[in-house]
Amino acid sequence: MAEMDVGARRVLELGAEQVPRPFETGSPQRARADYDATCPTLQGDREAVATIEDRHIDGPNGAITLRVYRGIGAPERNGPGLLYLHGGGWVIGNLESHDEICRWFANRAACTVICPDYRLAPEHRFPEGLTDCVASLAFMASSAADLGLDPSRLAVAGDSAGGNLAAVLALMSGAGQVPPIAAQLLLYPNTDAAQTAESYRRFSTGFGLTAATMQWFRDHYIRDAADIADWRVSPLRAERLEGAPPAFIAIAGLDILADEGVAYADRLRTHGVPVVLRHWTDQIHGFVSMGRYIPAARQAVEEAVAAWHGFEQGDG
Fold first, then answer.
1. Which domain holds residue 163?
2. Longest C-alpha distance within the chain, in Å?
3. Residue pair 167/184 in contact by the 8 Å Cβ criterion
4. Catalytic site residue 160?
5. Which of 160, 199, 234, 289 is catalytic?
6. How many structural domains comprise the chain?
7. pLDDT tens digits, residue range 97-156?
8. What is the CATH number of the domain that holds 245?
9. Residue 1 domain-assigned?
10. How far apart are CA 149 and CA 69, in angstroms?
11. Does the residue 308 lie in any domain?
């Protein structure tokens, strides 16, 4: 086992000081309040972008708020677009909690990033949040000209539960169920709701996200146990993965989700999907949202963008 990064260790110390109670000991509302209170102390710099605005679209479940970032240097016409889906176990997280990551992607990729405030569980269980993400992607494709986007250059990205949603959209794209996606950029994604990977045992406690908390998140998201086997909850369990867009997958080495992220990369490769797999062996789950203390946060975004550009050029 790799030694933990000093910045990651500091983050865990701060977490113990600021929020000593685990999420699963209280309500989703309290978890959201605790999470929202700590995010600003961990996030990296919110660098300036060319423009930022909130828009509202209609989805099957009702109105969805989208935050639209145009990066510095992004083309005004026919540029690349990225749908970013925030993490938070499908229960917590919002437009503010991942604002700095969206800004980094927008500037590093010189692209337009759209981040939807998708519905959260348990008030809105699977598949409602996913449906909001599908509607957001459809908006990007149908409004590409208005947004200055090339509809053939749309990618999806996300971290943790957001990585789960991004992976599912990518599979749906490969099956022709949603508009075409050119790349998927997954940061320590959740790919198997069964939660039986060996990394759940190795890192069950003491590394930030615990096995108990992850079970609490999952049980709020799914409607019943049958949903665990649904590939739209557990993309690792999808029968067919061929046709999915090229993938960049970032793995935090000290993370209960590490093994299922690697397993997903292996399955994608087996089905002929190009994959760039990158390990940060000394990092904990969620490190890309901890840029104030962890320099690797920005590095992960930069490597994801480099992989995306490589896929566009036919590399990988």
1. 6-312
2. 49
3. yes
4. yes
5. 160
6. 1
7. 999 999 999 999 999 999 999 999 999 999 999 999 999 999 999 999 999 999 999 999
8. 3.40.50.1820
9. no
10. 12
11. yes
